[in-house]
Design a protein that fits this description.
alpha+beta
Length: 130
């Protein structure tokens, strides 16, 4: 199996559901990656960026605040309070998403380092879109 199901949900509803090749998460003790058939685990998430490589090879970034991730061999479930996908058809739509993402992180993190780290990743992810 070379893909796994990834589901990212908030209290409002699902933000992302699909088959992915890999995902990187902002764990409370540092970033970690998950591939298909990963050993089961549960981890707390810090505010940060989930980086996804979809089944078609395209990459997507989603900024999240705190929550948790539950991984088993066939599915990865992420439950967070808030999430902002860094997507858009135009540069102005992506710029708006970046601003929303920065605000989400500033509300949830009191660490300047965490905020700067997320901003750098978001800016880098946006540059790959255009």
């Amino acid at each position: 199996m070379d893909t796994m199901k990834l589901e990212i949900v908030t209290p409002i509803g699902p933000i992302f559901t699909g088959e992915v090749k890999s995902a990187t998460f902002p764990g409370i003790e540092g970033e970690f990656g998950v591939l298909p058939e990963h050993a089961s685990l549960v981890s707390l998430l810090d505010a940060g960026v989930i980086e996804i490589e979809k089944a078609d090879g395209k990459k997507e970034s989603i900024v999240v605040d705190s929550g948790y991730v539950k991984v088993d061999e066939s599915k990865t479930l992420v439950v967070v309070e808030g999430a902002v996908p860094i997507t858009g058809a135009t540069e102005s739509e992506i710029a708006k998403a970046i601003e929303e993402a920065k605000e989400l992180v500033k509300k949830t993190s009191n660490s300047d380092f965490a905020i700067a780290n997320v901003e750098a990743k978001v800016e880098a992810a946006a540059k790959t879109r255009f």
